[in-house]
Amino acid sequence: MLRRFRGAVPYLFLTPGGLWLLVFFAVPVLIMASVSLQEGSLARGYALTWNFGIYPEAIGRWSTQILRSVEYGLIATVLTLLIGYPIAYTIAFRGGRYKNILLLLVILPFFTSFIIRTISWKFVLADEGLLLGTLKSWGILDPGFRLLATPVAVISGITYNFLPFVVLPLYVALEKIDYRLIEAATDLYASRFQAFLRVTLPLSLPGLFAASLLSFIPAVGDYINAELLGSRDTTMVGNVVQRLFLQNNDYPEAAALSMVLMVGLLAGVLAYQRILGGEELTA
Amino acid sequence: MSDDQDQQTAIEAAIARMVANGRLSRRDFLKRAGRGGAYVGGALSISAFLAACGISPAASNTPAATATPSASTEPTPVPTPAGQLNFANWPLYIDTDDNDSTKHKTIEDFTAATGIKVKYTEAVEDNQSFFGTIQPDLSAGNDTGWDLMVLTDWLIGKMVGLNFLETIDIPGLVPNFAAHGGDKYKNPSYDANNMHSVPWQSGITGIAYNPKLTKRELTSFEDLFDPAFKGKVGMFTEMRDTMNLALLGIGVKPLDATVDDAKRAQQKLLDQANAGIVRQYYDNSYTDALAKGDLWATMAWSGDVFQLQFDNPDLKFVVPKEGGILWVDNMCIPAKAQHPIDAQAMMNFVYQPDIAAQITEWVNYICPVPEAQAIIKQHAKDAADGGDQETADYLNAVADSPLVFPTADMLNNLYSYKVLSEDEESQWNDLFQQVVQG
Prior knowledge:
The complex is a heterodimer of chains A (283) and B (438).
Chain A: H1 2-36, E1 38-41, E2 45-48, H2 54-61, H3 63-94, H4 99-107, H5 114-125, H6 130-137, H7 151-175, H8 179-187, H9 192-203, H10 205-221, H11 224-229, H12 237-246, H13 251-276, H14 279-282
Antiparallel strand pairs in A: 1-2
Helix pairs in contact in A: 1-13, 2-13, 3-7, 3-10, 7-10, 8-9, 10-13, 12-13
Chain B: H1 2-21, H2 26-33, H3 37-54, H4 57-61, H5 63-73, E1 84-88, H6 105-114, E2 117-121, H7 127-140, E3 148-152, H8 153-161, H9 170-173, H10 175-180, E4 197-209, H11 211-214, E5 233-236, H12 239-249, H13 259-274, E6 278-282, H14 286-292, E7 297-301, H15 302-308, E8 316-318, E9 324-332, H16 340-350, H17 353-363, H18 372-385, H19 389-400, H20 408-412, E10 414-415, H21 422-437
Parallel strand pairs in B: 1-2, 1-3, 5-6, 5-7, 9-10
Antiparallel strand pairs in B: 3-9, 4-7, 4-8, 4-9
Helix pairs in contact in B: 3-7, 12-13, 13-21, 17-18, 18-19
C-alpha cells in the first residue's frame, strides 16, 4: 500500500502543473489547430472544412517575413550571447560580495513593463531626440540620419529586451563550475585563455544552450519591437499574425501561420539539441 | 538643451493649468492614463477569438435566417420605456467627472429626466473585436445584453446588411435628431434614412503637418508623396482610412470604387512605400511621432490634432483638396435588445443642443448638432463673466475650431467609407496588408 502510494507521488506532484498546461497550453493549441483548418468569415461564422491548403498558402505568402524573423532572432541571439557571457562570467567569478546586487541590476528592467521599456526607446532614439538630436547638433551625424524604423533599431530592441534571459542561465551554469578545475588547468601549464577555452567554456555549454533558446524562441515570435521600432521593411511574422488576427479577422490564416512558427521552432530546437550533444546538456 | 527646457516649461504650464482650474478634458485624461489602448484591445480580442471558435457550424450555416424576423418584420413595440439601459461606448467618449471617472453628468441628467437607469460601459476598444463578442449571439438570434452601442459607420452598414440591428422610430421616438441633427448626417450612405442609427460623434481623416518642418503649406494628397519628405511621412495602419483616402487621392469617390480602383490605390501606396517616403504605418501612436518631429506630415484624425494643437500651436490639419473622409460613430440598437425604447430615449436626449454641447466640450470630436456651437460660445461668455478666463479660452477654442465644427466648405469635400461586401473586404485586406507589411 505504502509502496504503491510512494510510486504515485511523482505523478501527484506533476498533476497541478500538468493540469495547468493541459488547460492553458494543450487545449489552446488544439483550438488553434482546429481554427487553422476552418473557413468562413466573422459575419457568417467559421466552419471546420479541413482546409489543409491554407498551410502552403500561408508559408508561400509570408516566407519573406518568416525568414526575416529567423534572421533577426539569430542575430539578436548571437548579440545577447556576446554581450551576456562576459557579464555572467564577471558576476560569477569576480562578483564577490556584490554578486547579489549585480544580479539584481540584471533583473531590474523587469520591474518595468516590456512595452513601456520599448516605447521609451522611441524617445531615446527619436530623430531629434536625446541621442541623435545631440549628435546631430554636434555635427557628428548627418541631419537625415535615423535609427528608428530601421532593422538596426528592431534588432537592438530585441537584443536589449532578451539580454537578462541570457545572463541568468549563463550565470547559473558558470557559478556552479568548481573553480579548482580551472586552477588545476593553470597548474598544468594551461594559459588563462586555454583554461577558459578547454575548461570553463565546455562546462558552461548547458547554460549557453539554455540561454540561446531562451533568447531565440521568444525573439523569433516577437512583434512588439518590430511594431514600435520598425517599419514595413522590418515586419516580422508576429506582426503578420497580429494583423491577420486583429485587423483582418482572418483567424484561419493567422492560426495556420502561428502553427507553422511553432512547429518550425520545435523542429529547429530539436535539431539544435542533436548537434550540441543532446542529453547530457539538459542535466 | 533649449528643446528640453521648452518641453519642461510646456509640461509645467500644462500641470499648472490643470491644477489651477481643475478642468479635465479628454486630452488631459489621455495624458494621465497613458496610451495603453492597443494592448487592452489585444486582450479583448481574445474573447472575440474564442467566441469565433465557439460557434457551432449549425448556427453559422443559418446566419441571417434566424435574425431577420426580429429586425425588420416585427411591428414597432409599444413605446413604454422599461426603465433600464445597457450602453456600450468607447473609452473617454462622454463627459467624465474630474475626480470620479465612473461619473458622467450627461448620464446622470438623462436618468434625472427620464427615470431610466443606465449601465454605462466603456466596452468598445475597436470595432472588429467588439463585433466578435456580439456576433455569436446575433447570428443565433439571441439578445446580446446591450441595448445601445456606439459603432463606426462601415460596421453599421455591414450589420444593416446582416439584419443585426433594430429599426429606430425617428419621428416618434427620436424627434430631436430630425430637429437638431446636422444635414450632413441625415440619410447617410451606410444606413438609408437613418433607419437603424443616429450619429454619436464624428471626425475627419485628413492630413496633419508641421509647417516649420515641411517648410511649406500642404493642400493635397500628393503632398504625402513629396520625395523631400522621405522617411518623414506617416500613414495609417487602418485599412479603411488609408485605402479610402488613397482612392480619393487618385480621383475615385469611395462609394463608386471597384476592385480595380482599389488595386490602383494600392499601387499608389506601394510606390510611396517603396520610395522610402513612408516612415511607418501608425495606429494612435502617430500623434507622439508628430509631436516629437519624427513625422513632418501624416494622415491624421481631426480630434487628435485639435488636442495636439494646445501644446503644439504650429501643427495644422487640412482636408486634402481631393477630398477627406468623414467617419461617423453611431448609436445603434442590436437585434433582440431588451430595452429598445429606453435606447431611443437616450438617442433623443443627446440630440438636445445643450446636452450635445456638454458632451462636445469634453470630448472635442465633431459634434453632429450644429446648434451646440452657439451654446458652447454662451458657456464661454458665462465663464469669462464669472472671471474664469482659462475655461473661457478653452471653450472658445472648442467652439471656434473647424476641427470640432467644420466649415461648409470642409463638409462638402468629405466622403464616407465605402461599405464593403464580404468578398470586397477580404480582397481589400489582402491588398492593404501587402502595403503595410511588404
